Amino acid sequence: MKTDDLINAIAADAKSVEPPIAQTVAIAVGVGALISAVLFLWTIGIRDNFAESMVSSLRFVFKFVLTLSLAIPAYVLVRGLSRPDFQPGKKLWFLALAPALLLIGIGLELLSVPQDEWHARMMGHNSVACMIVIPLLSLAPLAAVLYALRRGAPSNPAIGGAVGGLLSAGIGATLYASHRPDDSPLFLAAWYPIGIVLMTAIGALIGSRILRW
Description:
The chain is mostly helical. Helices cover 77% and strands 0% of the residues. It is built from 9 helices and no strands. The longest helix has 26 residues, at 18-43.
């Protein structure tokens, strides 16, 4: 049987089980996020002025807009990629939303902050913790997403794993954003992408190996 015929046959069978696959992805992502949230609250926790900052600081709110603009499109793509007939195509452009928002945030920050403060805002208070904690908080969601994808039949294991890594990093970054006082878009641009790129690469590497069929 030709590969295309095999994919079409599996896709036809998958239509009857699409809800369970979608449900598996949703449950897996929820469980992975919950594990990371419990670990986060148990170890470092949210900042003391969280509620006040959500009301008074646009920079603080922007962090969550940014991380969720990465996590939500990645989740939608992961659900689709669990099916063998899914063609991401132009839908991959959804992942450009977060970088576009970040560029806008950087531009507004540079316009509103004196130039002599740019470096200090970019360095923040603890850039090393950012590079370490975001990947650590992303591990449980990544494992959960890869488990869910194995229950499906992704036609491109590497892409599936990479998008799963993006989703997990978006979850980890969202949790971490509620902790540190570094709210400047310059800090986000300098340090958050390191953990995100790392998890994307790990997801692609693992996915290319364990999601083959």
